[in-house]
Structure prediction request, 150 residues.
Amino acid sequence: MKGLRQSKIKEMIERRVVETQEDLADALSKEGIDVTQATVSRDIKELMLIKVPTGDGRYRYAFPPDQNIMVSQSRMERIFQDSVVSMDDSLNIIVLRTQQGSAPAVAYTIDYVKWPEVIGTVAGEDTVLVVVKPAEAVKTIMAKFQALLS
Prediction:
């Protein structure tokens, strides 16, 4: 029931202006889903909905803007140059060593650019594992990383 309810809430937020929890509860009720204000409140929190201005002095619920900060080529270069200490690879994994505490930022940057050969990253404090598929693409990705460091 929760999944269906939250799916309906997503649809409603995308299709119409919903200003209050009461508006949302009423709209759900019209769809045949009876909820309490407390349930709506929990759903809003779980869906991470925020209030945004409508432009006429009122506010409505919305999904948060993409929380990703735009990662330009120059920003990616700066992050790599400021953080990456060394690189190595084994089969389909690239290991990036970074300054202490920088690995999450480096991994985030790699994830953000969504290179099709990179299927994921795992970051510790000073190490990022970059999983590449197919393994033959490791050389290409290593070259891209090297170019960022130059």
The mean pLDDT is 89.
